[in-house]
Backbone:
């Protein structure tokens, strides 16, 4: 089994990289931009290059599915880059290809707010994919950068699925039927995602869980079973949204960036807008085995458990990270 977590934004350190190895995590999609413009994003890539140089026995930069296989063979973790906002491409479609050449493999079209490309899930009105958004999706399809709609609103997400000539991803979210968080996705979105060959990564961020930090492993795995019935066993995986060791000030940065002078509490309460405790069965990268065990107890076969824990994402990487073929 190849173990893939398709979204983390941890406070990276040698400790976390070693925990990835203890947990036998073969690949992690990491967020390298929230609100950064292009040059600041390059600075973040420079930091990752230093980590790759410093910890070559633990991590390396992944750009293809074969890098996941290599990571497993060599006992390392392949790190894949992604954006949670299109801000790094600014208003320049040419930067899509530049970012792909720098190793970026996922880009959200929005992060909560309206962007130049689409509408975020916190806006009152969802006007769908913009004129620029249509062109950027076409360019992302061409070069092999995956459209990610994790923080996008309903109409925008459905339009992205329709417009994109290649499958899109919702890298870190859960079904709305299980827990009605603003960022969780409707049955209509999940059906369309599955029918188009797209992927959903189940989030372990407590605000997206039923009963939040008290969510049980049984409840989580039952939700996965129900979602598999809705959109297909081949279209689901893990996207934990693990924000390990981050200070609460980073939550403020995620939600506020530089677009407002006020505090945006998002899905947290005004009394505590920071990171909630993780459920006790998933604290860090060493605990993916608990999810696999929970899936088996839920009745998933060994093959289907492996599919959810990483094989589905690996197939998706193989098919979608390269340039479009004629």
Residues:
């Amino acid at each position: 089994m190849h173990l893939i977590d398709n979204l983390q934004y941890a406070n990276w350190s040698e400790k976390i990289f070693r925990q990835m190895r203890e947990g036998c995590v073969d690949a992690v999609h990491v967020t390298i931009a929230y609100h950064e413009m292009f040059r600041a994003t390059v600075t973040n890539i420079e930091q990752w290059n230093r980590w790759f140089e410093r910890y070559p026995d633990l991590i390396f930069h992944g750009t293809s599915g074969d890098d996941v296989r290599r990571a497993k063979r060599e006992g390392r973790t392949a790190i894949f880059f992604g954006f949670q906002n299109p801000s790094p491409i600014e208003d320049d479609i040419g930067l899509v290809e530049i970012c792909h050449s720098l190793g970026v493999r996922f880009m959200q079209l929005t992060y909560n707010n309206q962007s130049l490309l689409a509408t975020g899930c916190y806006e009152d009105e969802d006007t769908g994919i913009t004129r620029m958004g249509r062109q950027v999706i076409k360019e992302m399809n061409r070069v092999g950068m995956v459209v990610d709609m994790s923080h996008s609103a309903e109409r925008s997400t459905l339009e992205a699925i329709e417009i994109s000539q290649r499958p899109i991803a919702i890298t870190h979210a859960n079904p709305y039927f299980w827990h009605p968080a603003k960022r969780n996705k409707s049955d209509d979105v999940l059906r369309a995602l599955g029918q188009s060959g797209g992927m959903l990564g189940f989030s372990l961020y407590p605000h997206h869980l039923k009963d939040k930090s008290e969510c049980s492993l049984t409840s989580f795995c039952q939700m996965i079973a129900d979602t598999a019935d809705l959109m297909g066993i081949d279209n689901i995986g893990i996207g934990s949204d693990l924000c390990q060791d981050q200070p609460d000030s980073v939550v403020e940065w995620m939600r506020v960036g530089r677009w407002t002078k006020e505090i945006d509490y998002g899905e947290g309460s005004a009394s505590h807008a920071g990171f909630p405790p993780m459920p006790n069965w998933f604290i860090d990268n060493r605990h993916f085995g608990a999810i696999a065990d929970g899936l088996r107890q839920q009745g998933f076969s060994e093959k289907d458990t492996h599919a959810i824990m990483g094989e589905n994402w690996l197939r998706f990487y193989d098919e979608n990270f390269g340039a479009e073929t004629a």
Remarks:
- The longest strand covers residues 27-33.
